[in-house]
Amino acid sequence: MNRLLRAAIPLGVGLGLALCPVPVGLTTSAWLYFAVFAAAILALITEPIPLGATGIVSVVIIAVNGWGFSPKQLADPTFRPPAEAVKWALAGFSNPTIWLIFGAFVFAMGYEQTGLGRRIALLLVRTLGARTLGLGYAITLADLAVAPFTPSNTARSAGIIFPIVRNIPEIYGSHPEKSPRRIGAYLMWVAFASTCVTSSLFVTALAPNLLAVEIVKKMTGLEISWTQWFLGFLPIGGTLLLALPALAYWIYPPEIRKSTEVAPWARRELAAMGAVSPKEWLMASLALTALGLWIFGGHFIDPTLVAMAAVAVILLCEIVTWDQVLANKPALNILAWFASLFVLADGLNKVGFVTWFGTRAAMLLAGQSPLIVMILLVVIFFLVHYMFASLTAHTTAVLPVVMAAGLAVPDMPVRTFALLLSFSIGLMGVITPYATGPAPIYYGCGFLSRHDFWRLGFIFGVIFLGALLLIGVPTLSR
Fold first, then answer.
1. How far is CA 136 from CA 121, 129, 276, 388, 446, in A?
2. What is the tens place of the pLDDT at every residue in 359-410?
3. At what angle do helices 414-427 and 226-251 cross, to 10 degrees?
4. Assigned domain for 122 exists
5. Residue 260 resides in a domain
6. FRET partner for 14 with CA separation of 20 to 30 A, picked from 140, 276, 282, 355?
7. What total number of domains does the chain contain?
């Protein structure tokens, strides 16, 4: 696809929507906002210009025209649109998740610069490297081991798992620019998809899970304990975790399947590296300290502040220099496009589009059986996440709307309905390169092409949603 066509698709869709009559219940500015948002999402897929440029251009178009404000804001006589438009456009850069992602990139650089990442990667390869599938399961188990104690999948996957996994492909001669499908692309996808499953397996593995529990309690009176959540999702999550590395191996096969020579080679490489250096010890200490604070320190220090403090130490000790940070184009690019997209997605809720969409969808389901309504509302809740760059924002904005629509249906199995919606939150992070915190890290690493990421996101989104419904509905209805 040439660049002209890649630009024509999002522009054509955006202009087409803008010229359509404004749907009943929406303001003109809200509809035009959605037209720009839809064009931006398509531009992220077709990529006629760099991702960061797409995000910034979209935000500027909306800010200049003043489409990012709700009618309530505009009705306030003290409201000052010009000043607020600038604040709105730049709000994404103050979001903690954005900087947690950036910190994860610096962490990965620290692992690479000190050699610690290579050492850990060689240890994994020495133990499980005879088969690529074995490495896939090792990565999944590593995320599973940390998930119950880390309520941020960005901290867990982007900050802990990614820096280690990033060092494995090069051992096999697989690089982002050369032979990414040799093994690197497979390992990166397994790491990303696994954290989406573990995020739903434990209520404490993802902050929006805890938010969902509170929303369900307020709206229905149901209390979901840690054990009830785990046992409820275990048939779904256990099945997915057991199958995921093998599914990815079949759907997105690596070129290297096995190598009898690689384990002995890894032993020789470890011997050649010699003893652990002081900077490796320092980097390992920082990683373990950050992990401990991410797991146990949530009540007195924010995960993002933990990451930024670690970055400060990394810079002060010159594990990574500031010039090296500035030269890291993927990190700076993700900082720009994800911050912009976060603002765009959050604005859909502020202008009233998300509430309007949820209400209209619920009206269309009136008169159907409770089971059909429940399944369709769960599907809608899952797919609406294409409009969001934050699981927390999605949970806050959409869960109450969908819950209210379902609760209005006579004989709705409330407990099953509430659990299915809550369990879907972590799983839906797999669908796009912006759906959850770790997604931009794996999207920006270079091993997964734009086409492959969107294609795999759709395929595994269907698999995850299918497992949630096919396994979850009968097991939770007992």
1. 13, 10, 26, 29, 19
2. 777 777 767 788 998 999 999 999 989 888 778 778 877 888 888 788 878 8
3. 50
4. yes
5. yes
6. 355
7. 3
